[in-house]
Amino acid sequence: MIAPAKNFLIFTTGFLLAASLWWSVLWFVQDKPVPNAIFTQSILDSKIESARSSPKVPKVVFLGGSNVLFGIDSKQFARQAKHAALNFGCAAGMGPELILDLVDPYLSKGDLVVLHWEYEQYLFTRSGQVNITYLNLLFGPQRPFASKLPWADRQALSLSVSFSHVREGMETYWNPYVTPEIYKCNWIMDEFGNIRSNQGGSLPSEMKKAPLSSLINEMAITDDVREIFSAFVHRCNERGVRVVASWPNLYAHQDYDGNRITKENFRIIKGFWASLEIPVEGDPRGAMFQEEFFHDTVYHLNSKGVALRTQKLVEELRPWLEIDD
Asked: Of 93, 184, 268, 281, whose CB has the highest number of CB atoms within 10 Å?
């Protein structure tokens, strides 16, 4: 019995030493972001600056991933609806919880938050199968947010980080010939958080062929998503911030037409928001557009598509704006 106990002790000691070493390495590279994290964080910096400078009056805040970033013009909305507005669309790969955490300090009583989440976001988990952008941010410039996550998720996420993350962070930090500044986003973004560099473009042929797997396969909204949005809605209710849900801008792929599973997924999403007592404005089909309105992906509208989508939102949200009058 002594040998098994000794082997167990050696294994446990080795495991703890390896885990401690890995955490130390991740801590060391937290201020040495990889290019992907530098790019995404530069988008966030612009968004936060827009939120800080937004009018201190009740405003409409469009919230979601890049379908909002590349799909809604808050300046046009403000002009047509005669109501202050802010585009806080970020990179969908960040996951919803981080985006909600970042916008939270800039929400005030009377604000109307309009949620436009990409369909993949309803499948989000804090750990497990996560987007590389999410990992790069959590073990880089968004380390403070990572510290708020449940302990078990933090440990699981640390084991998901690849050695290439460490290598790229070191290379970026110590490369004497390249400044990290070159990896920052160079999209033209105005003071309202809107992208102005999506004037034209077209969908790659492979994107036109393939429908979203999240819409043509049976959807099961994750427990993490339920917890994340329940907590956000609760915080908003306590502060007098109103919340409504809408639909993401999307390429109208023919495989969605008459698809039983797609129709059921829409019903599941509506049911999810209903369980949180959040009204859903508009229709998923009304947020789908033809190829001529897209910039470069199935979620990114060009300037013509943005103008059309924003006009639709002015009409759909008008009853909520009249409450403020």
From this structure: 93
Query: What string of DSSP letters covers 247-258?
Result: ---EE--GGGTT
Say if CB 29 and CB 139 are below 8 A apart: yes
User: Do the Cβ atoms of 95 and 149 come closer than 8 Å?
Assistant: no
Q: Is residue 134 domain-resident? A: no
In a domain, 64, yes or no: yes
Domain span including residue 226: 54-124+184-322
pLDDT tens digits along 213-265: 999 999 999 999 999 999 999 999 999 999 999 999 999 999 999 999 999 99
Tokens at residue 261, please? Answer: 């599973």
Number of helices followed by number of strands (H, E) in the chain: 14, 6
Which pair of tokens denotes residue 153?
């998720």
Please give the tally of structural domains in the chain. Answer: 1
**CB neighbours (10 Å) of residue 154?**
16
Q: Which of 9, 107, 89 is nearest to 47 (CA)?
A: 89
Note whether 34 and 136 are within 8 A (CB): yes
Q: Where are the alpha helices (DSSP H) in 82-216?
A: 96-103, 132-138, 143-146, 151-160, 163-174, 205-209, 213-216
Q: What is the pTM of this model?
A: 0.91
